Amino acid sequence: MVKRIMIWGVGGLGLTVALLIAVAYLLLRASLPLTDGAYSVPGLTAPVTVYKDAQGVPTIKAADLDDLVRASGFIHSQSRFFQMDTLRRSGAGEMAALFGEVAVDFDRERRRWRGRALAEQALENLSAKERAMLGAYTEGVNAGLEALAARPPEYWLLRTRPEPWQEADSLLVNLAMYFYLTDQRAMRSLRMAQMADALPSEVLAFLLDPADPMDAPIVEEPYPALPPVPSVEALDTRQFEDVVTDPWRLFRGEEPLVGSNNWAVSAELGPDGRALLAGDMHLGLSLPNTWYRLRLELDGERQLNLSGVSLPGTPGIIAGSNGWVAWAFTNSYGEWSTRVRLERHEPDDDSPGHYRRPGGSAPIEEHEERIRVRGGEDRLVHYPWTEWGPVVSTAGDDEHVLVWNGALSGALNMDFLGLYQARDLEEASKAAAALGMPPQNILMVDSAGDIGWTIAGRIPRRGNWQQPGEPLPLSSEFQLKGGWLPAADYPRLLRPDHQRLWTANARVAGGEDLKKVGDGGYPIAARQRQIRDRLFEQESFDEADMLAIQLDDEARLLYEWVPLALEAVRAGESTVGRDRFHQAVARWHGHAWPESTGYPLLRDFRQAVHGRALGPLLHPVLKAHPDFDMRPILKRERAVRSLLEVQPPHLLPPEDDDWEALLVSAMDAVIDNHGLENSDTELVSWGERNRVEIQHPFGSMNPLLRRWLNLTPAALPGDSNLPRVQLGNFGASQRMVVSPGDEQSGIFHMPGGQSGHFLSPWYRMGHDDWKSGRSSPFLPGDPQYELQLRPK
């Protein structure tokens, strides 16, 4: 009897567990988006049809613009609301309200900029047309959220409920991209000031020279000659002790920068008299992907036919084609932030908290921000502000004012309709200047076969911002002209004689155009140069040729480092480690392939030489400013090559007798790091080190979630200084090749799938094409599902 009761008990427990699992599964499935049937949406003036293809890519057809925007908000919300929620909270500094104590420090830093206040002020300044579209989008988002039979899975795990969307939230998503794509802390300005404070002028000029041996702007305009190698009178590094030469300490190795590639060829070089555009935006990769594929069709007098990628949380298309014009972006790395040295001033009336400004003084304002913390106590944080931006303290006694493009009045808007309706390059370039977005290089291609470049986003009219090699301006002297550069004065190049355009985050323009954009820390131009060279290796291109450049994994930057590595081998005595290093480097095939064992060694050797060559010159800065790192000062290659060519003995690390010995020391550091002296240690391949593990934010919580939420890790070709950018979980967040008017011949790739729901068949679908580089269509496929949205 007892045994029978125990069996019943165990069986009952098993049944209970099974029922709980079944209920949980049904509950989770209830939050999957609608795909078929009909649903009534408040605010619609006429029915809207949403078709989805086999990969879940929607085509939305409407007769009214606001209805089209409202339906796109509905679709975004259904598939990606948690992503939208985290983006708006990222822009506002409100993550702790969702994630608890773990996000307090993040919010504390973001709240310095008072993001929600900025967004609400920007909302008030929108035109009536922008406000109407944003209102329609917001209504659609909330209708889509309400249409889910259950809240999205992430909110069950967090034991909370999603909060409704507000109109200002879309502007906060835009602000989140400003945070991601620009230097809101003005770290480059700080590092240049620290260098100016500690280094002799000769050394400073040498290290901050903007020239790049790989330079490949779209308009050839060489920089002036490199300043000479510093003299022994300026600096003698042989007297230093404890010189830091570790590249990770000095400039954090070769971490990838947020960037992108794009290029275009005119009709003279394209297929069948068509111009072609290629673009791949490089971001941190996670699930769901940053972008959501979308096609928007508007009938009637104001016809639109937009295809491309959208950013959930904002209406419209980010990059794509409207049938007349196609466009793609890369991060511009212009001068979008600076620092000002604050001068405190106490007026005669003894009122506290003033600062000096041109013509007198002004009070420092104090803003209080309340950080809500889920499961914890709220935090009240106070931030001092000036007319130019917030005040921050440095590691010393200085106070700096941060001046940032993203916080200037007018930086945020929703003025995208002009670009969507543009019929040619002139209309598109004018519309691009009005966009309230982080300033980007935009390449445009029109259906007439012409190509062009300009800056998309607002360019500030700068005053006396800090210049390289100069100390920070004082608040009593700082001038911010205010306002924005008129569209007519924007830098641009339309219809170039060579019929080709290319940008990849390095310097694009020269002369007066470069002054307008500024230098916010351009990376080395190796990737941009390789793309340019590929474009001049052919006289005709089709879509497959453009994709081949996107997948180009040849590492041309390292070609000049092979003889230096072999010189180091010859200069040193033979050891097991050096022999293995020699064999691997000598066998290297010139590509960043996963199976290569020579590539990671050669890559690390270049970094080690950079560290040993520049560490002694930076020693005075590190002594004066222990928090210093050179990462925001990105152009190191030309300085290092000059040192290796001139070989000044007074600039060597104390432990190296000559520059040949420096190469040997750098090689030995790599050998030690890889454990090559131990013959039992296997050589590490590039694929073992460069593994791509694309995860959902919750995918690391436990093994079960990891299995359901994450993609299978993969070893992929590529790196950061060649066209196929792939370094760990950083890489191409999409690839597209398109010709406006012939979108059906275009190509598209995206990591992950359309849906943000792990139970959706579209959570991973399409990822294999991105991973393998297999060509897949730019446009959605044939409709497999039809959803009717009706007025309520």
TrEMBL record:
Ranges annotated as spanning the membrane: 7-28
Region Disordered: start-end pairs: 344-365
Superkingdom of the organism of origin: Bacteria
Keyword set includes Magnesium: no
Cofactor (UniProt): Ca(2+)
Keywords carried by this UniProt record: Calcium, Hydrolase, Membrane, Metal-binding, Transmembrane, Transmembrane helix, Zymogen
Composition skew (Basic and acidic residues), residue ranges: 344-353
Binding sites annotated in the UniProt record for Ca(2+): P468
Active site: S260 (nucleophile)
Textual note on the cofactor: Binds 1 Ca(2+) ion per dimer.
One MF annotation (Gene Ontology) recorded for this entry: metal ion binding
Broad enzyme group: hydrolase
GO biological process: antibiotic biosynthetic process
E.C. code: 3.5.1.-
Family (UniProt): Belongs to the peptidase S45 family.
Quaternary assembly: Heterodimer of an alpha subunit and a beta subunit processed from the same precursor.
Name of the protein in question: Penicillin acylase family protein
Organism: Natronospira elongata
Lineage of producing organism: Bacteria, Pseudomonadati, Pseudomonadota, Gammaproteobacteria, Natronospirales
